[in-house]
Amino acid sequence: MSGSASTRLHVVDALRGFAILSIMLLHNIEHFDFYFSPTNLPAWMPAIDKGIWDTLFFLFGGKSYAIFALLFGLTFFIQSDNQAQKGNDFRGRFAWRLLLLLGFGILNSAFFEGDILTIYALIGFSLIPVAKLSNRVVFSIAIILMLQPVEWLNVLNGWQHPGIKMANPASWAYFSKLGGYIPGDSILKTLIGNLTNGKTAVLLWTWEAGRVFQTAALFMLGMLAGRKKLFVQSASSNRFWVITLITSTVAFIPLYIVKNGLPVWVLSEAIRRPLITIVTSWSNMAFMLVLVSGFAISFWKLSGRVLNILIPFGKMSLSNYMMQSILGSIIYYGFGFGLYKYTGAFYCLLIGLALAAFQWFFCSWWLKTRKYGPLEGIWHKLTWIHS
Predict the structure, then answer these.
(1) Is the pLDDT of residue 5 over 80?
(2) Which of 45, 146, 299, 301 could connect to 217 by a Cys-Cys bridge, CB 3.0–4.6 Å?
């Protein structure tokens, strides 16, 4: 399976575009990680805002990033496979590529503390030691990681000490400081605050939410999906995604019920907190598979029609992601237009859709004459420097 233009997996480009679009809509209703409820809205607006917030987070919260993680592992396989066919080992070049991604992520983090590029760059190194292992071994490692072993140790500790008083998650102390710089009119203070306090908060939260193990597992599963050619249209891959759609839907329903019931059913916080982390991780994984399998089946069923509109988004996902962060900070933060003070979820959704339309036109125009997006081109050239 090659990543060349002649055999490019358009369903993957479209799926990646779907993920980047849904991430942008979520980031907009969050004011790009600055949670604020305006008080000057009409009386009927809060109910609409809540409905939009709940719907978007049900559909995409914790799932869109997971799609990205799955496709990250898939892309690693495609690039590795291309090099293997030329007799090259891609792992060293991939490590350099991750360092480049870390640089992009640090730049992006200055504008948006919730950046995932730095997280992916760091966790991406987990792919290097497993790249040559058998499918069975890699799958076993991914399952162990997906089970959230550290949280099960926390459950066991809570079982032994159910009445222990739990401290607030460490990330809370840092998130509480956002109000000290994001509403202000100094861009320098905001950039420094995001890179120091904000980045610390996000890194801690990533660990606390079980995202470290889950992301590594998804990277590995994406690599296996590449090995098994699950995104190459065929009768067997279509059958696989149909079965996945059914089983993941069946699995999601009880997981979602349990996740919502745990706060009532488990009185001990020492047990309840890690259990919620575990079940939320599994629930998001199940619904992510619903989205991915449903998307792949629909894309092939429609022969690429309709959903192919998302391909330009996906081909320029890095450029789009960083562009969102910069534009979002200008729109919502204090150094820019400060719209966090006036916009609830409804207005933010409209802004997000307008940004999506702008990015789509930009991507379509750019790709008419170029193979890569602006940042994708830089990343590609630097990846293969001195090669």
Answers:
(1) no
(2) 146
